Amino acid sequence: MAGKKESVEIQGKTLPLSNLDKVLYPAVGFTKAQVIDYYARIAPVALPHLKDRPLTLKRYPEGVNGFHFYEKNAPKHRPDWVETAHIWSAGNNRWIDYVLCNELATLVWTSNLADLELHTSLSKFPEMQRPTMLAFDLDPGPPADIVQCCEVALWVRGIFERFGMQAFPKTSGSKGMQVYVPLNTAVTYEQSKPFAHAMARLMEAAHPEKVVSEMKKSLRTNKIFVDWSQNDDHKTTVNVYSLRAKDRPTVSTPITWDEVEKCLKKKDAEVLVFTSDDTLKRVEKFGDLFEPVLKLKQKLPSLEKLDALRQELIGEAQMDTRKPPKPTAAAKARAAKMAGVRTKSRKAR
């Protein structure tokens, strides 16, 4: 039986929509029509972050519980007004025509293809070797969760603050979170990727009990993997405001550092879970918290400066270990009790 269909006109472009009543998130009854509605309503803040970034579609034609597939090449049946970027893929040894989601009509069209998740490059076409930002994906190894990610994210922010730089957090919409550092200056992946890797190793050296910089899952139990490898010209990251294919229509949502600190203090992972409705309300209240990532110009520090900071941090950690440990409450109680015994003994004499 054919699903509900209709046509819409968007900015002078007629677009047929199909199977609007198909449930794509069965656990909560969230339909394809609601997916399209979300992306249409979030478009004013999402499109600037998608503009000119080659888009990899992640399609779920049967919903989040069905099969899915990635689609790098723009579908051949696309409307002729969909912009594309003709890019050589060394990994695939061929040219790929990526979709450029630069306008509302294209975003609605990809939504109609059940492209639930939007995965984009850190570069903008045509300057594909020039990332506009650094991205650190904080991935918790069970039983760790986003609460521990918050602690690591604050450490990441602290390191960049030493360089006089700002960083911006967002939830992944899944189990972790990400920290983005806007650059928007002349830099290449040959510079940014080694820096990101060195940064992850620095975090691991400073906090070996809580952070890991290697991808081996066997090393990640109850630790946060600082995934630096996304800083690569052939990698993509989930775009801000993208839905995620989870039980609920959760969203990769920009957050404030106050919210990160609040989550860490409360130790409640649900504090940083946002659905499509939540995110729309947040945008209405706060605007685009990720807007500075588009505009803020920051110079990538040299590896030499990062190494100098690494030595400084290690020195600080060593100084901390030389300090006498603070007595616990139990130790204080025992000391008080012993003091009382000694006082009584003197009186008896």
Automatic annotation (TrEMBL):
Chain intervals for the UniProt region annotation (Disordered): 316-349
Residue spans of biased composition, Low complexity class: 328-337
Ranges where the DNA ligase D polymerase domain occurs: 31-290
Endoplasmic reticulum found in the keyword field: no
Gene3D superfamilies: DNA primase, PRIM domain
GO molecular function: ligase activity
Domain of life: Bacteria
Keywords: Ligase
NCBIfam families: ligD_pol
Official protein name in the record: ATP-dependent DNA ligase
